[in-house]
Hints:
Layout: E1 7-12, H1 16-26, E2 32-36, H2 46-52, E3 57-61, H3 71-80, E4 85-89, E5 103-109, H4 118-128, E6 134-140, H5 148-151, E7 162-167, H6 172-180, E8 186-189, E9 200-201, H7 202-208, E10 219-224, H8 232-241, E11 250-255, H9 259-268, E12 273-276, H10 281-286, E13 289-290, H11 294-302, E14 307-311, E15 314-318, H12 321-329, E16 341-345, H13 349-360, E17 364-368, E18 383-386, E19 410-413, H14 422-429, E20 433-435, H15 437-452, H16 461-475, E21 478-482, H17 488-499, E22 502-505, H18 506-514, H19 518-524, H20 526-541, E23 546-549, H21 558-565, E24 570-574, H22 577-586, H23 597-615, E25 618-621, H24 626-639
Parallel strand pairs: 1-2, 1-8, 2-3, 3-4, 4-5, 5-6, 6-7, 8-9, 10-11, 10-12, 13-15, 16-17, 16-18, 18-19, 19-20, 21-23, 21-24, 22-23, 24-25
Antiparallel strand pairs: 12-14, 14-15
Amino acid sequence: MNVSSRILVSLFAREESSLRARLDWLHGKVGKVELRLDFLPEDLNLKSLVADYPLLEWYAACRVIPVTESRTHRLMRAAEAGFHGVDFPMEDGPAPEVPKGVRRIHSWHQESADGADFQAVFKDLHNRAKGKDLVKMVAWADYAEQAWPILDLYASSNPNSLLAFAQGAGGGASRVLALQLGAPWIYSSWPGEATAPGQWNMVELMDFLPRTLHSQTPALGVLGDPVLHSLSPMLWQNAMQGNESEPFGTYLPYPVNDLPAFLEGAARFGLTAFSVTAPHKQQAFQNATPLSGSLGEAASACQAANLLLFQNGNWYCGNSDGIGAMDALGVAPATAQAPKHLLVLGAGGAASAVRVEAEHRGWKVRTTHREEIENVDPANFDAVVQATPVGSVAHPGLLTAGRPPCAGTPSLDMVYHPLQTEWLQQASDAGARTIPGTQMLLHQMLAQYAAVFPNQAQPDPDALRDKLHAFLQNRQALVLIGARASGKSTLGRNLAEALQWNFLDADAVLEQQSGRSIEAWLRTDPTGFRDLEAQILKQLLAQPNTVVATGGGVVEREASVQALAHHKRVVWLECNHEELCRRQQADPRPALSKLDLEAEIEALLRQRTPAYRTASSFAVSTNEAPASSVRKVLLHFALQGIMPEFR
């Protein structure tokens, strides 16, 4: 059975024209829709909807109890309108009888990982079911291993009549695994409108699911904590796709807390391989046997693994960090006649893996502890690897400041968030051949792929690199600039909600990091304020999947203007003088000059407008309603191909 027919899209029943526009798109692309009746309009004709979209199977649910009628009564309206199935929550008591041909779904939802007795709940629901009724059990999982008990139900039940999976941050993968175990469908949402935590949207599912999905489909993933931000799923899904239109297996993120418990369940459910990220690399090594060859040797040398393989009933481990770094550097093996010297900044697990692989290739290696770094000169080495977290968004800074590698020297920074670190920029300014951390990420993934699929054709590195760069571009922060009161915070929050992204107010970040109020700071030390604002702007531009509202004066520094101008998603919120005056009179702000309000606004607009124009890639008027501005911004970037188009 084609997996698209097993995708159910949950839609809220609200305004009819918008609902029908979505149904027009879904009709013929997926098999089922669930209409959420929580906010059902009185004038929505359910029977007409079913008749107008005959290729869809129709199901109904209602999680919020209506004010004007009982939930059961509202659900029965859908059953009588010809829906194929109706979801009756367990807490409402026994489900009523329904018209012939309508399937009842007896459902139970866990609201926290509180140790419920799944077997007892299942027995109760199973006793209520008759004929073709379905049992639906939704557990809660903060971590992936908490979903294993709910999936165990498939071993003791008819999979075709059971919908059992977990919601929550750790439940996303369980939804796909349930489909592999035989669940009749997988719940999904319209993009940006998830009806439960951990739910996939249907665009994601159609993108990464194979055409057919069953118990023998290769199931892999990446485990760690946190891990939902990982780039590995995107790389592996594309690698497993090859020249086909969809991958031949699944690769999903698994947030893990208790690694031994997770691995025990993973083996039980047929998961065969995992990339491993922090904080589980050392424990992964302790819970597995090293692979033979260079991957296993590297894991043994640094007592840490970034790959786990399940073979012949046992877990095996390897470490591809060193191979990834050396392949990314693109340097030839050294010889006794032509010795080469590699400097590795850092002495942790990743640095150890690089040392092992570099020495395997004949290079002489110097690794450095943090306190030794200030005494080493990168210019004295034939290649340099920056193997610490310094320079990342979480750990800003610059190692070897003022001591860059020599011109032409291959220089790799393992950090890839941000893509261009200060260390790489310093090396680039000195003429070194700089390599971002994404190159290492790609090459260490290719080494893992070869170990996991030794008989498969290896993926094209150039094609994967292009997809990786396109993906990173699609995650770039959306930045709003413009005058005070132009609506940056309001529009920013609305955009973040529409995209299901994070929202950050740059002024709030400034106050948090400095411990000072902006009003007092600007009054007493405007130069210091603008210095820190320019530094923090770099951090904010590197935030993935985030809408950022900047301060009105961010363009006062030329460096900030240039940084914004090189960013792909900067929106200038234009607002006329009269509207800005009206808004600031209604919501007074501290004065920025000795001028009266109207004169101050006019002077700042005259001064800053050229910089706003230079720094932005798109302008939108915010004299109108925020909803209109949101649509215009999203449409603009969708047409440019640098924003998810399906919103």
